[in-house]
């Protein structure tokens, strides 16, 4: 039940982190127009490379190492400060590199300077500590205030097409403030440590080993936007970014389980309980598949109308882009279950790195011809094929370690349920005039059809869900 509770907390936080720009995006797209949205997306895609280098793989590594040592507060405290000192140093070096970069690259200079607040924010990001000790409640509560504050600031201060820089500042400052607000709680979590006992650079090689797959992942997450902006115009970076935002908020509900399960699995692995680790993987993979299959077919069914309706006039290309990208929901959900929840906590970092490297290499190879031939949709196809490569390799790697048949036992039933749901919702979405009411009814119809189909086909996961519901009812 602790895992389920933490999943709900983390899902809530992750959804909030993504939903804030989605609440403001319909407003921003109409105020800043496609050119302003594109300028933000393009410059942000560039700054994310520096954010990545500054973070140096600490997100996954720190989460795991804290989980290993959470039973010993002295070792936990020493590990935290060692990793934090290392990350602070890498952030300083990275920011110096960013300053040098701006002496060479002279486009959108002012916007890039403002975007660099996101690099500074990396130094103060200690969310990995809270994830390692499986304390998600405080993170959610503290950051909710900051996220809501950013919404208020955007809606009240960003007024016309000339406020692109102000919008970028508000988003970056919110990220920085959100990280700072977690620090006061450290007094209760950590014990005093002696500086001479700290050895931050002993973590360098391990963080770099996790930094490599994050670089590779960033290639096909950010490179598409960067290349679209460079090859066919910044506004296409905006189209890609908007389509990706809507897909990712749906995906977050599934992948949030990965953040929760990583420390849980790491703790079990540290105790040598491999049987429990495998059992957790089977359960998690099945639960993620149940959710993500519904999400994939659901968002695909309404995508053609949702994209342009949500963002307004001038954002028509977002709909078809969303339809293509919807496939990554199931692919990333699976690779998250296998990679983040199994390979990383069981210290199979090489296999995880190889999978994302293969995806990145494929993305680089096909991006140029795909964008040249099909523009925005080509970038989306490249993204999907890259995720196919990542997921396929991870599943191939674990084929002799776990029982794939047990992992996929319910997939045909989820697939049938998703297809049966997709057909009527897709027809309805492209027949009636799009409005908030029609979209709500389409979503409701999809949920009802999917649930009914699950009850008809009765996958093994249904028994677990019913058991959870019964236990909740008894407690109530």
Automatic annotation (TrEMBL):
The protein's topology relative to the membrane is: Multi-pass membrane protein
Principal location: membrane
Q: Does the keyword Transmembrane apply?
A: yes
Spans traversing the lipid bilayer? 7-29, 41-62, 83-104, 110-133, 140-158, 164-183, 204-223, 246-268, 280-302, 322-344, 356-374, 380-399, 411-429, 435-457
Q: Where found, per UniProt?
A: Membrane
- Tell me the keywords, alphabetical order: Membrane, Transmembrane, Transmembrane helix
Q: Does the UniProt entry include the keyword Transit peptide?
A: no
Question: InterPro entries, from UniProt?
Answer: Polysacc_synth, PolySynth_Transporter
CDD domains in the cross-refs: MATE_Wzx_like
Name the Pfam families on file: Polysacc_synt
What is the protein's name according to its record?
Answer: Flippase
Origin species, per record, is Ligilactobacillus faecis
């Amino acid at each position: 039940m602790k895992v389920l509770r933490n999943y709900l907390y983390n899902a809530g936080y992750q959804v909030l982190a993504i939903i804030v720009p989605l609440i403001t995006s319909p407003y921003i797209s109409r105020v800043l127009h496609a050119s302003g949205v594109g300028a933000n997306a393009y410059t942000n895609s560039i700054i994310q490379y520096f954010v990545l280098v500054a973070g140096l793989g600490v997100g996954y590594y720190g989460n795991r190492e804290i989980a290993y040592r959470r039973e010993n507060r002295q070792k936990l405290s020493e590990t935290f400060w060692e990793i934090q000192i290392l990350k602070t140093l890498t952030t300083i070096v990275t920011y110096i590199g960013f300053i040098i970069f701006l002496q060479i690259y002279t486009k959108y200079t002012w916007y890039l300077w403002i975007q660099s607040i996101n690099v500074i924010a990396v130094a103060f990001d200690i969310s990995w500590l809270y994830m390692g000790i499986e304390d998600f409640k405080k993170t959610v509560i503290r950051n909710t205030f900051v996220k809501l504050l950013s919404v208020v600031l955007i809606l009240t201060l960003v007024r016309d097409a000339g406020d692109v820089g102000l919008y970028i500042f508000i988003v970056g400052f919110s990220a920085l403030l959100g990280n700072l607000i977690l620090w006061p709680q450290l007094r209760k979590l950590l014990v005093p440590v002696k500086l001479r006992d700290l050895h931050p650079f002993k973590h360098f090689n391990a963080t770099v080993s996790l930094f490599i797959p994050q670089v590779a992942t960033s290639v096909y997450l950010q490179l598409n936007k960067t290349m679209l902006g460079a090859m066919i115009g910044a506004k296409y970076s905006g189209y890609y970014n908007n389509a990706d935002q809507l897909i990712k908020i749906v995906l977050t509900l599934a992948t949030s389980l990965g953040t929760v399960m990583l420390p849980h699995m790491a703790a079990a692995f540290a105790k040598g309980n491999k049987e429990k680790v495998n059992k957790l993987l089977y359960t998690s993979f099945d639960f993620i598949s149940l959710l993500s299959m519904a999400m994939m077919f659901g968002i695909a069914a309404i995508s053609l109308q949702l994209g342009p309706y949500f963002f307004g006039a001038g954002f028509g290309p977002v709909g078809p882009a969303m339809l293509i990208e919807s496939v990554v929901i199931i692919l990333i959900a699976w690779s998250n279950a296998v990679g983040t929840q199994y390979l990383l906590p069981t210290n199979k970092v090489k296999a995880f790195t190889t999978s994302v490297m293969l995806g990145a290499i494929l993305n680089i190879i096909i991006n140029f011809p795909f964008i040249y031939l099909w523009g925005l949709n080509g970038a989306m196809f490249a993204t999907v094929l890259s995720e196919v490569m990542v997921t396929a390799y991870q599943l191939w790697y674990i084929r002799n370690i776990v029982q794939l048949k047990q992992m996929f036992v319910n997939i045909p039933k989820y697939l049938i349920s998703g297809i049966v749901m997709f057909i009527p919702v897709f027809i309805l979405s492209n027949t009636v005039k799009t409005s908030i009411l029609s979209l709500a009814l389409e979503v409701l119809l999809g949920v009802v059809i999917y649930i009914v189909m699950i009850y008809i086909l009765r996958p093994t996961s249904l028994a677990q869900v019913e058991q959870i519901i019964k236990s909740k009812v008894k407690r109530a």
